[in-house]
Amino acid sequence: MRITVLGATGGTGVHVVRQALDDGHDVTAVVRDPKRLAVEPHSRLTVVTGSATDTADLAEHLRDRDAVISALGSRTKGPTTVTADGARAACAAIRKTGGGRFVVVSASGAFTDGDSLPVRLLVKPLLGRVLRHEFDDMRAMEAIVRDSAEVDWTIVRPPRLTEGTRTGTVATRTDGNVRGAFTISRADLAAYLLTAAASPSLSRATVSVAGGR
């Protein structure tokens, strides 16, 4: 596949780039600062300097893509609109250029669908206070993606991300959050994002994921 990665310098994005190259895909990484991309030069890797929240910038690098994977996230704890702005720009650019499947990372913590009663009543309210700005941004982002009628999208909701190794086992659920599993390694998440990008069955689906048990 020909894949454009947004948020490529982040903890999850760098795994997406590395694994995509290992799997034989052609990758374009859109970054603000190429020096921050911790990936060795590769014949199938194109690194471009641009803004992931600017439609004009993105349109140039989304043309003739099979998939666009967004692993954008805020680097601050204050109010943020980075994922919502990135989704708005990416969806507009995809509509303009035919940029392929849009796979975007959200967060299962921002939602209670399918959670057990203790998690809904005790865990999520506390988590929501601590991460309220990031979660507000994620919910706004998801609304933008779902309202993009001409975009073939998949929303992926992971729980807390870890720096663990790639296990190759990921639990998934499309009707709510995965129960009883509260973490996933960034490496496993990256692998699932690439799987989702190539899975027509996940078109316009929201998938909660977690580390396999």
Describe this structure in words.
- The protein contains 6 helices and 10 strands, in the order βαββαβαβααββββαβ.
- With about 210 residues, the protein is of the alpha/beta class.
- It has a single domain (about 1-210), classed as Rossmann fold, CATH 3.40.50.
- The strands form 2 sheets. An 8-stranded mixed beta sheet has the order 3-2-1-4-5-6-10-8, sandwiched between helices. A two-stranded parallel ribbon has the order 7-9.
- The longest helix is centred in the middle third of the chain and has 16 residues, at about 80-95.
- The radius of gyration is 16 Å and the shape is globular.
- About 45% of the residues are buried.
Features:
single chain, 213 residues, alpha/beta, Rossmann fold, eight-stranded mixed beta sheet, two-stranded parallel sheet, 22% strand, globular
In CATH, what is the homologous superfamily?
NAD(P)-binding Rossmann-like Domain
Task: Supply the number of helical segments.
Answer: 6
- The ordered H/E elements are EHEEHEHEHHEEEEHE
Compute the separation of the termini in Å: 30 Å
Q: What's the architecture, going by CATH?
A: 3-Layer(aba) Sandwich
- Low-confidence segments, ≥5 residues, pLDDT <50? none
Total domain count: 1
Quick rundown:
By secondary structure, this protein is of the alpha/beta class. The protein has helices spanning 13-22, 55-62, 82-97, 117-130, 132-146, 186-197, and strands spanning 2-6, 26-31, 45-49, 67-70, 101-105, 153-157, 160-162, 170-173, 183-185, 205-211.
